Amino acid sequence: MKRNLFLAIFLLALAATSFAQKPSAESIRKRLSLGFGVYNDFWMKVPDSINPRAINQGIDVFIHYNFPMDKKGHLAFFIGGGLGAHNFYSQALLGVGEYNIYGKPLINDADRQGESYFYNVPAKFNEKDITVKKSKLSITYVDVPFGFQYKATNKIHGTLGFKVGWSINAHTKYKGSDLAGSGFQVKEKSLTLRNIDNIHYGPYAVIGYKWFGASVFYQLSSTFDKDLGPKIYPISVGLVFKPF
After folding, report:
1. How far is CA 118 from the centre of its chain?
2. How many CB atoms within 10 Å of residue 141?
3. Conformational region of residue 97, where left means phi above 0, alpha means psi within -120 to 50, and beta covers everything else
4. For residues 85 and 165, what is the distance between their CA atoms, to the nearest angstrom?
5. Is residue 185 a contact partner of residue 178, using CB atoms and an 8 Å limit?
């Protein structure tokens, strides 16, 4: 599946060059578009035992190069690059291995003890109250978006595209009571996570007016590697701004 995605991107990029007619430096500048987006990630298929936060804010920046497909410039094929950050907030922690923080086995099946799991923090540990102020999983991707854009004469525009991204950073952050039961407040960040799928992909669409619009991205791939973590994935809904 992933190999087919890489082949599709290459073929689309190769086909896009057929639209170019030795553009000048001025036309190249006009064909470039820069923008950014803000969105909320709705995480789907989260385990029932976990209570995710309603607001999971994210942001991305991107650049597109457009290949006009008609003389009036209404329809264009584009391909580009981008950087996007996705966040998952909850009151739970991410654990991997045989035991969680308070010594209980994550699962009893020895063949599956390398899987990643979300588990809730206990209200008390070592007879001390535990308060979670923030717990999040954050993943940043380098994206390759491509697709088609249509611009009407009334400045309404629509985009139908596909995005493939590679994870360049994945970490968790925790802020709250010391989980060892010391009674102190702590901030912790884990930069080494196992079982995060290095690739994400899915279709997206934008509809807008002039330099802004509304967007939705439907991630088809699971956030975690197959059979090595919960099968959760985000649907990102937000706003896109293209002032340049």
Report:
1. 18
2. 23
3. left
4. 11
5. yes
Each residue of 203-233: pLDDT tens digit? 999 999 999 999 999 999 999 999 899 999 9
Instruction: Answer whether 231's CB lies under 8 Å from 31's CB.
Output: no
pLDDT of residue 143: 97
Please state the pTM of the whole predicted model: 0.85
Return d(Cα 36, Cα 241) in angstroms, integer: 5
Beta strands in 45-155 (DSSP E): 57-68, 75-89, 92-96, 116-120, 124-125, 128-129, 132-151
Contact residues for 26 (Cβ-Cβ < 8 A; gap 6+): none
Domain extent for 41 = 2-241
51-106 tens-digit pLDDT: 899 999 999 999 999 999 988 889 999 999 999 999 999 999 888 765 555 555 55
As for how many domains the chain has, the answer is 1
Q: Tell which residue, 54, 52, 98, 93, has the closest CA to residue 189.
A: 93
